[in-house]
Glutathione S-transferase (bacterium), 208 residues
Amino acid sequence: MSQLTLYTAAGNAAERVLWALNYKEISYQMIEIESLPVGAYARINPYGYVPTLKIGEELIAESLAIIEFLEETCPEPTLFPGTALERARIREICEFINSTVHPVQNRSVLNFLRPELDSAAMKSLRAEWLHRCLQKLAPRLWQHGNFAVGTAFSLADILVAVIYKRALSQGVQAQEFQEFEAWMQYLFQQEVYRRSAPFSWPVKGQAI
Ligand SMILES: N[C@@H](CCC(=O)N[C@@H](CS)C(=O)NCC(=O)O)C(=O)O
């Protein structure tokens, strides 16, 4: 494969891709977009979001599109294990998080919809949305095993762990999400987590 460059910044969507790259043991270089000249990133990713993956001279935006590309070009170890039904469930969970839960976390979306909110009010709105969404998500998780879907690590574990971490950082109370806490503990003990996750658990300074 050509040289891979991940354009990144602190944030959830970039963590998804970092985790997938580490899990597949694909080598890459990373560029923090803050280190680029003003305006340069807009030419790399016209949507204005991170991450973007550069493959040779080609650019792919959108974390899930990037991860699907990595899965196709480097299928083992897979992020979509199991039966067709289990793979559909993995995609269902990822889709819910990516298209319903996550967008409200974006400053650009909140600034557009609720320009009157200050940072504290934005944080509390984000937490409220995350709280509601995690409650809806819980019954779809851990149905046939200890991983998010079934008995093997998948992309669903990555997306759920990253958004759950985000929820705690925005003020969601861990005590109200004991199933998520127990699952994160389980995940953290797995070799796959220790060798590929871009953050340790519990996150330093985060109340549990
Ligand atoms: N659907 C996009 C979302 C990416 C995204 O939301 N990135 C955030 C950081 S986690 C961002 O760039 N936010 C900047 C903003 O809100 O303007 C993806 O999956 O890549």
